[in-house]
Structures are given as structure tokens and as C-alpha cells.
């Protein structure tokens, strides 16, 4: 009998238990994203294996399980329980901040002007190449801990500030180390085609990646040293053109990597059409996506990872979230945390998505949970509160879940607990005595 087996955690009597999905959906789009599954006066059980064992009305759960079987019980009266947030796009491994470039942007310099002057990615590459693996891990760990405290329990993490095999592997080793030693979930991405290295043409860089980088990644995967999940390319005018992008992505797919790349950000490149053709799992940015690209992505079930922080900080045109949603694209969100867009907080990303991209709060939460998990190929285990999924949860000290989005920058006082696999990873003691209103 389930009620007599040892269990890890009982969350009891939540004011709102936000399931997001309730019928095993891998993603939500159109009406599904607009209306989320929410239970009131509900409880949730996480087993010793870290997976959700039961979700339902508090009295039903109470009758089904004995309190004596739980390692921990949290009274969620007056609180809301949500799935752990999923950040579908970050660049968190690097050295050398670029705070000086923020002043340049405010004075009117464009992203590509800074890039061409040796700043931007090239500035970070120079500092990351010089940094030791230990230095990179220390700052990376600190950044992940801040993401966790803001409610993110699964984060996509890219390399891409090496642009040579040695440094890319150093970054991927750092990510692998965090995967194995930290509680936060990580989906790792090889992004060696983040920029064209100084002294090389795009064609030479493409050949180097296909002939040297990717075979080495395959070798390290087979030996069990590094497991990379995704391949990324910055498909952009003056960086990697459509044909170079196609060659790299196909080569990555051939060694078993999911395609998840930067496209149509600063110029219309037909990246969305290419991604749909290649069977990409996700494409990020898409500020300059074409109507045909939107249609192709919807048909191919290729997720659009929208990054409202980037458009906000670079003063770009906002991605067409409403058009994508109406046409049936699977819309996900990411923070794009990097030296250029320094934001750890998915609650703030959701707020910006609602205000600047005209998404509803329901659509934004779906985009930061189940759809972001889908963009990483993980929606079978993450992104909703359903039996069998991993017990990753956020508890907020409010009687309505919408406060997580409504309180812009207020998540630090609002998030009460962050839980991974049924274990409390972060507890904010001040929430117990504070009102969220």
C-alpha cells in the first residue's frame, strides 16, 4: 500500500497548486497555454526517488498516506506551489564582466558596433581563455545558486566564450562538474560557433568545428567524460551565414546533439525556416523572424525561445510573441543570462514577457515551465506537477500564484522554498513573517 511506504516530502493544503499541465502534455500552445491547470486546497507527495507520487485534494491525500511515512511535511496553507522554473537559454560560464559596455550601449553604440570594435563576445573570449577551470567553476556555481534562489530548477548552460577547442572543452568540463555536484538541473550546450575567432574566416571556423571540435565531443561522450545535450550556432549577418550554420548544425545532429540555436536576432536570416527543415528542437531570439519562418516552426513543433531581456537591454524590436502564439508556435522563455544581459531571474523575465511582448501571465508561466522544458527535450520529466515527474517545486508566500510575475523584482522576498527532487535546496526564512501584499 502506497500509504505505508516511506516518502520524502508532503506539501500540504496549498491555497493554489499550479500543475500547469494535468494530462501529460509535452507542451502547451494556443488555448492550452492560455489556461493552466490549478488545484485549490491541494497537496502533493514526493517519493524517496525524487519523483511526484500523488497530487490531489488535501483530504484525499491525507486519507491515502500516513503522516508518519514522510521525512518532511511543509504546511502550505495560504501559499502557492508551482513547478520549478526552467530557464531555456543562458551563457553562464565566463570571466571578465562587461559593465563598461553597458555605458556604451546607453550612449547609442549598437551590439554589432561593439562586437566589431573588439568588444562583446571577443572581450569575454579573451578573459575566459586566460581564466583557470577552477576560477570559471567558482563564478559559475555562484551564478547558478542565484538562479536557484530565483526559482529556476533546470537551466540550459552554453559554452561559446572559447572559440578554440581547448577553451570550449574547459567550459564544458566546468558545466559537467556542476551537473554532477550541484542540485540544480542542467542541460549543456556546445556553442563553439558563437562568433568567428579572430584570424579565421567563417568558413575556416566552420571547418575547424566540424573536423576537430565535434569529433572530440563525440569521443569524450563515448568515454563518459563530458555529456553535451545541444548544439548551438549564432546564425547572423557578419557571423555565421545560413550555409555555415546548416553544416555545423547537421554535423552536431549526426553525433546525437539536439539542435537549439540563435537565429533571426539582428537581421532576417531565414534561420527559422532552416531550423524547421533540420528538425531543430528550438531556436532562440527570433526578433527578425519572417512570417514564413513562424509558420514553419509551428508546423515542425520547433520551440521559439524568446528572450525579453535581450530586446529590452539592446533596445531591439520585441519578438512577435502574440503572432507566434496565435499561429501555434510552442513559445518558451529564457533569461539569456550573459555579460551583455545580466539577469538571473525568470520571474523578471516573465514580467517583461507580459509587459513588453503582450503575453498573458498564464502564457508566460507555461513558457517558463513546460514549454521551456520541451525546448530542452525534458518535458517528460520537468515543467509541470504531475505524477511520475521530478519533484522540482517553488513555494511562494502568497495566496495567488500570479504574484510571482506581478511583483517585478519582488521574488527575493516572495519565494519561500525552492525544492529539487523533493529536497529543500533553498529556504527563505523571512517569508514566514512577511506579507506579499
From TrEMBL:
Protein family: Belongs to the metallo-dependent hydrolases superfamily. HutI family.
GO biological process: L-histidine catabolic process to glutamate and formamide; L-histidine catabolic process to glutamate and formate
Record keywords: Histidine metabolism, Hydrolase, Iron, Metal-binding, Zinc
UniProt enzyme class: hydrolase
Organism, as annotated: Pachyramphus minor
Gene Ontology cellular-component annotations: cytoplasm
Protein name: Probable imidazolonepropionase
Pathway: Amino-acid degradation; L-histidine degradation into L-glutamate; N-formimidoyl-L-glutamate from L-histidine: step 3/3
Listed GO MF terms: imidazolonepropionase activity; metal ion binding
Coiled coil location: none
Span of domain Amidohydrolase-related: 81-424
Cofactor dependency: Fe(3+)
SUPFAM superfamilies, sorted: Composite domain of metallo-dependent hydrolases (SSF51338), Metallo-dependent hydrolases (SSF51556)
Enzyme Commission code(s) on record: 3.5.2.7
Reactions catalysed according to its record: 4-imidazolone-5-propanoate + H2O = N-formimidoyl-L-glutamate
